[in-house]
Specification:
4 strands, elongated, single chain, alpha+beta, 2 domains, about 50% helix, 4 helices
Length: about 160
């Protein structure tokens, strides 16, 4: 079942629940309207309870759609993303560990290509922690390279 059809079914169920709830509140509110004013505590409480049920149905439908979204299943720890690097605005090179094998994958919108297969290796300490170098460190190294190429060792003001 596609995501769009799941969303349609969830909206349909939500509308059916809301109409059933509205029908029961209208039917029970008619005799109360004859004896109580519109601003009575019972009328206000009835509106708040109805609002709570509608909001709970919306939250439940959103949770259900999120849980049933395609591609969100886990592989039970069999696969692990070791690292990734952007090579373009929408393209990435991803290193995935599957058992005792590392796969180098090229990922672009609408396609994934296996670029290379490697045996499992020890992960370098900087990559194992998941910490990427800070932008400020990268900028400093890039500026040092730039100024060292031109023969000047001083930074601009």
């Amino acid at each position: 079942m596609s995501l769009a059809s799941r969303a349609f079914v969830a909206c349909f169920l939500l509308m059916a629940a809301a109409s059933a709830l509205a029908g029961s509140t209208v039917a029970s509110a008619a005799p109360a309207a004859l004896t109580n004013s519109a601003l009575s505590l019972a009328g206000l409480l009835q509106v708040l309870v109805g609002l709570f049920f509608v909001l709970a149905a919306v939250a439940g439908a959103a949770w259900l759609l999120r849980r049933m979204a395609p591609g969100q299943t886990t592989a039970g720890g069999v696969m692990k993303v070791v690292g990734a690097m952007a090579v373009g605005p929408k393209e990435r090179v991803v290193l995935v560990e599957v058992g005792d094998t590392w796969l180098v994958l090229g990922v672009a919108p609408g396609q994934v290509n296996a670029l290379h297969t490697l045996p499992k290796q020890a992960v370098p300490s900087g990559v194992a922690s998941g910490a990427s170098p800070l932008f400020s460190d990268w900028l400093k190294r890039a500026m040092d390279k730039q100024f060292n190429r031109k023969g000047t060792a001083h930074a601009p003001d």
